Amino acid sequence: MTLADINPPLHGAPAMARFRTDFAQARTRARLRWWTGLGVFAALCLLTAWLGEFFKVTQVTMPDGSRDWRWIIPAGLPRLGEYLSKTIPELRWSSLGADLAAWFWRWRIWLELLWETILIAWMATVVGVTGGFLLSFPAARNLSPHPAVTWFIRRWLEIARTVPELVWALIFVFAFSVGPMAGVLAIGIHSCGSLGKLYSEVNENIDMRPLEGVRAAGGTWFDQIRYGAVPQVLPNIISYTLLRFEINVRSSSIVGYVGAGGLGQEIRTAMSLQEYTDLSALFVIVLVTVIVIDHLSGKLRHRVIEAET
């Protein structure tokens, strides 16, 4: 007995009725899966919000001086606005030059520290790219000389990028004292872990035929990487590297908060002394720097991509 004998094919109106029934059942199952997924997603969001104390109720001081219980989000928003308003300097059109000069009154020191911040980011990127690039090939499963090598390198890359940059900075400040070197090492190791991961994923998606050709011609593992893999992954590596340099500029302005050099030490001083307008001035300096670097790196990235195509 065949399947056709059990469920003989239908024609005409019965076939259309069967189609409509099957379509309705499939649509019902799809809607059920969609609503189930949506319910699970909403439950996870609510659980995360609860663990993050988004629904916390706390005591706040009312305008008349009394204390009362309020939901923390609407109670905290006015204080957030108050804090941000303190960072905005008073700028008048009639005395704009003098007001800007008063806002950026430490501009000479800040520019020196900004230059130091960029140098920290540059050196950290060099360290991270060098380490990540070299480790990415044995970390890729399709290029690794041995599975054990891949396992150890992948664990190291995970450790390097899992430990936050601030924690690395605290460790190196303890070991090598305060200064830019601690910032370079902290950001460089973290960049090595992140870039090594990204580079290895790019390596795992390459075309293996050029490498097989090099191996068939008697090339070593290093020859296969040099002449078969590197030309394929170079545009992506340049793109990730430029993006990482932009990220490192922001990071180097933060690690200075724990004594690792750069603008971070000024941010720490401004926050400690409650110099709110200095904070906004430093933020503007970092923002403009990141915008300029993003613009330049974008142009360079497009040039590289156009040259490859």
Give a verbal description of the structure.
The chain has 309 residues and is mainly alpha-helical. It contains 12 helices and 2 strands; from the N terminus they run H-H-E-E-H-H-H-H-H-H-H-H-H-H. The chain folds into 2 domains: 37 residues, no CATH class; 202 residues, MetI-like (MetI-like fold, Orthogonal Bundle). It has a two-stranded antiparallel ribbon with strand order 1-2. Helix 5 packs antiparallel against helix 6 and helix 11 packs antiparallel against helix 12.
Give a topology summary.
Elements: H1 3-6, H2 13-51, E1 57-61, E2 67-71, H3 72-87, H4 96-103, H5 107-139, H6 147-162, H7 165-176, H8 180-203, H9 209-216, H10 221-255, H11 264-272, H12 276-308
Antiparallel strand pairs: 1-2
Keywords: Cell membrane, Membrane, Transmembrane, Transmembrane helix, Transport
Transmembrane segments: 34-52, 113-135, 166-189, 279-296
Family: Belongs to the binding-protein-dependent transport system permease family.
